[in-house]
Structure formats: structure tokens, C-alpha cells
Amino acid sequence: MNYLSDLHTHTIVSGHAYTTLMENINFCSQKGIKILGTSEHAPTMPGAPHYWYFGNLKVLPRIINGVIILKGCEANILDVDGNLDMPSDAIKNLDYMIASFHEPVFEPKSLEENTMAILNTMDKYEKVEILGHLGNPNYKLDYDAIVKKAKEKDIMIEINNSSLSGSSRIGSDVNCEKVARLCKEHGTKVILTSDAHINLKICDFSKSIELLNKIEIVNSPIIFYEELADGMDLKGCKIMDKFNSYEYLNEVTFSSVIKKEFFKINKVENNIVYAISGIVYKSDYIGNLIDYKCFKYDKCIHSIFKINIDITEESIMYLKKYIDGNNIEIIGDSVARFITFENKNDKTTDYIEIWIPIK
After folding, report:
1. Where are the beta strands (DSSP E) in 282-315?
2. Are strands 249-252 and 334-342 parallel, antiparallel or unpaired?
3. Region 240-247: what's the mean pLDDT?
4. Phi-psi map region of 47: left, alpha, beta (phi>0 left; psi -120 to 50 alpha)
């Protein structure tokens, strides 16, 4: 399987990595990786950039060389109160944060204190979407409490390939398995990440996949590929089993939520919509959506976008024009997902499928 995104990667800006952001982007472009999450260490990590670096990520284009860029940060948990080393004026320019322990910043404490620090962080920061390398054996943790809290807060647990490969945090493998099993038990989302410090390791999830196969977590909500454009919420929904019945469907790789406020943006670009299927009802198509907390509506617009290098805001903005032109009222957050169709000649075409709840 070719994985399409990696949300935990570093560049030379972090102080101990070995490729630049453009080198990472070009590697992704060459390998067909569609989304790169760049997540430098936050300022209190030795060698990390000043917080102005994160505040200025607003100048970074959303798409470079055909690769969608997610602007992240691996923030350091500073204390038992769960404070992170990112000021609010820098956080507002980020798409997401990974919250992690690092020994130079947070000296390992008791099981109770370490656990409370993570629980407090999850309560304090909405931009924390991922908990980083929980398997580090230097930090004793109540994994059950953390996994349950992550489920409650809709935060993803990272399966860190670097930890499992033994290149860092040696001895993490046993704990990582414990965490993964608890995620499977409680239905907590997990995300595969490389924690790459050189571009050659981006989307290398080999050890993580071995672990997931070992514990048969393949039917759990695994997030591989997320956000498509400005305004989309990174948090995902469960993968819909119904997609598996599509003819020629090769794989379903992600789901995400689009905030209804996104459609209030006034920008409308050229029409590159592939198809608008029209309005559908729960009784005839979206019945399988009602189990997902992000989508509990009886009526929606169903649309499919063909992906090309220009996809993201332009396609969805044209859909906004369709909605406005027909005086349609959006009443909640939409569900969208990336799908790949494979034809009889083994050629693939990528699409985005979206359901928009309407009055």
C-alpha cells in the first residue's frame, strides 16, 4: 500500500534533522505522497526554532509542487498542569499540534504526575490533535486513562514508526503494543507517523504496520490521510464500511470533517467539480452515516470531486456557489473522504466524496 500522508516530520529547523522543508516536499511529490504535515519541535526543545517561526507559517502556501502542506508543531508538555510551549498567537496559525514528552524539557516523574500532565494537556488545547510517542519507557503512564480520554476528546494516538524501529526511545515497542491494543479495545483513533528526521523516512510505516497486523487492528478507525484545504477540520470520522462494496474500489484512506463555516468564505474559483449527485436522504443512501457523531442528519447534498493538481479550495468553493445559487441552507458540519478507484487496466483515479447536511 502506498500511504498518502505523514503528519509527524521534521526538517533542519528542528536542530537535529537533516533535510530542508523543500527537500521534504520534493520527496513527497516524487513519491506520490499527497499530504505532508511539517511538525517542528517547539521552542523549549534544544535547537528548536523561536516561536516566531510557527507564527510566520501563514506565509507558507497550502500547496507546493502538488503536495498539500499541513502546518503543525510537535509541542512540548512543560509541567503537570499540561501547559505547552506554544503561545496562543503562534498556535492560531497552526493546523494541528502533536503533544509530546521530551526528557530535556519535562523530566520523567511519577506515573500519576506524568499521566496528569497528558490529561491536562488534552483538556487545555483544542489544537492538540495527536499524542506523540506515548510508548517512551522513560515515562510511566496510565495508558488506559489516557486512551479513554483521547477517545472522549477525539484526539489521535500516534503509532510512531521511529519508536518501533529502535532508532529512538529504545524499548518503546512493548508499550506501543499496549497502547495500540487499548486503542483497539476502546475505539480510539490511531494515526501512523514516521517521525522522520530525514526525507527518506517520510511515510515509512513498516514497523507500525507490523504491529497493527499483529494485533489485528485493521478494522479500527485508522487515520492515514486528512485535511484537504484551509477551513477543514483535521479530526476524522470512522471509515465507512459501505465504501468497500464499490466496484473497482482500491482503498479508502481517510475521512475528515468540514466545518460549515468553511462555506461562508466568499472566494469562488473556476468549476473543477467532477460531479454533483444531488440531494439524498438517510433512507436511501446515508443511513450508514448516522452512527458517526459528526453526522446525524436526515438530508444532505452528495457530491464527488475528481482530484487533480488544482484541487482543494477551488473545487469546494464551486460547490459553495451551487449551494448559494439554490438558496440551500447548511445546518451542520460535512463529511468528506478521499477514495481511489481502480479500473480494469489497473489505472487509478482519485476522488473526494462529500456529504453536506442541509435543511
Report:
1. 299-306
2. antiparallel
3. 32
4. left
- Residues 281 and 299 sit within 8 Å (Cβ to Cβ): yes
Distance CA 295, CA 6 (A): 26
Name residue, grid cell 498567537: 89
Helix, strand and coil in the chain, % to nearest 5: 30, 25, 45
Half-sphere exposure of 196 (CA within 13 A, CB side): 28
CA 161 to chain centre: 16
Each residue's pLDDT tens digit, 63-91: 899 888 889 999 999 999 999 999 999 99
Residue 74 to residue 97: CA distance in whole angstroms: 6
197-227 pLDDT per residue, tens: 999 999 999 999 899 888 877 533 333 333 2
Task: Give 307 or 152, the one with higher predicted confidence.
Answer: 152
Q: Which of 292, 301, 248 is nearest to 273 (CA)?
A: 301
Grid look-up 502538488 returns 66
Q: Which residues of 325-340 are buried (b: 16+ CB within 10 A; e: fewer)?
A: eeeeebebbbbbbbbb
> How far, in Å, CA of 70 to CA of 58, rounded?
11
- Whether residue 56 is predicted with pLDDT greater than 80 in this model: the reply is yes
**What does 196-219 look like in DSSP terms, one character per residue?**
BSSGGGTT--HHHHHHHHHTT-TT
